[in-house]
């Protein structure tokens, strides 16, 4: 069997590896990072790329950026700053009205998720929401709050390069094709309007739909933290100011983005805002390693010629019109993300459409941005985005995700198809 594979043209070997990788992503029996590692190794062992492509991602600016910001973000959670913000919301007058509280929580979780881990943000706000519901006397319902804030965390996490995994992943793919990296806030061109659309949808349509269709008993627990007072310490201030420094440096270009993140991580570690060993245990190594080895997959597709072959096949099938190709990249990404991890989808789609853009002379950044954002707006199931999976604790059924997430997913997918070519370069 191996001899037969080795006798094939390199591009066909690479395509076989990609198909097997895609199946493994869908089945999801092996950790996604391990699947990416095995795939990157297969590209080398079967002779389609060099050994350095397997581990070159460890030197990636984006990997250092994500790693550093995970540590800074962990400091914000561990020193109590995020919980302090949450408790201020619990005590605010917005708690008196369910819809206004939903909108406020969506704005806060979406904004935090743009710079911090949306998974950690949701882990903090889920018990806070439960506390609000438990002490409201039935005025605030846990089931009505959790789904909207999960949607906000998913979309809000797409507004910057560091908000969720698909953005740095597609950026790594661009760099593996020798294109310049994407800017920290470039994703906001597409994700910002999507976030506004989400808020408006929930305010005028989604909230009423929830009231009619979420007919199961509320899962709010009375044993969650009841908004206890959080003491602000010197470490809390250090963590907050470090995050502020990172944002200012990102915007001003004071230091390269990877160095900025590492400086931030060094500050919070050196000042013991977080202890090193526990912090390393809380780091999402699945994401870090996925970013590393996904770059190896992209390099294998590029070096073997498989990316060019798939691009030529896609063009032959659907034509070379930019608008059609751009819409196809979005709609395919949205469809696949509702069936498997959004990160896995981005890892598969980005190399193909970036290669198509490079072949036809279109702007590869337009496709990279579109795929990253599309992989986060796919919220019709609890499968694609981790934030959507986390709120299963609210007692939601699969049909509740469809009712709540499918309409806004369709709206945002259509919006991206129309809005992207207006604000992005088309060639």
Number of helices: 21
Share of β-strand residues: under 5%
Radius of gyration computed on alpha carbons: 22 Å
Shape category = globular
Strand runs, count? 0
Distance between the termini: 43 Å
Helix content: over 70%
Low-confidence stretches: 222-227
SS-based structural class? Answer: mainly alpha
Question: What do these coordinates show?
Answer:
- Keywords: Membrane, Repeat, Transmembrane, Transmembrane helix, Transport.
- It is found in: Membrane.
- The chain crosses the membrane at residues 12-45, 57-86, 98-116, 122-138, 145-164, 184-209, 313-336, 343-362, 368-389, 401-424.
- This protein is an all-alpha fold and 427 residues long.
- It has one domain (2-423).
- The chain has helices spanning 2-6, 10-27, 32-45, 52-55, 61-78, 81-90, 98-115, 118-134, 142-156, 166-176, 188-213, 234-252, 257-270, 276-282, 285-304, 306-318, 322-337, 342-360, 364-377, 386-390, 398-423.
- Helix 7 (98-115) runs parallel beside helix 9 (142-156).
- Mean pLDDT is 85; it is low at 222-227.
Write the layout of secondary structure elements.
Layout: H1 2-6, H2 10-27, H3 32-45, H4 52-55, H5 61-78, H6 81-90, H7 98-115, H8 118-134, H9 142-156, H10 166-176, H11 188-213, H12 234-252, H13 257-270, H14 276-282, H15 285-304, H16 306-318, H17 322-337, H18 342-360, H19 364-377, H20 386-390, H21 398-423
Helix pairs in contact: 2-3, 2-15, 2-16, 3-15, 5-12, 5-13, 6-8, 7-8, 7-9, 7-11, 8-9, 9-11, 10-15, 10-18, 10-19, 11-21, 12-13, 16-18, 17-18, 17-19, 17-21, 18-19, 19-21
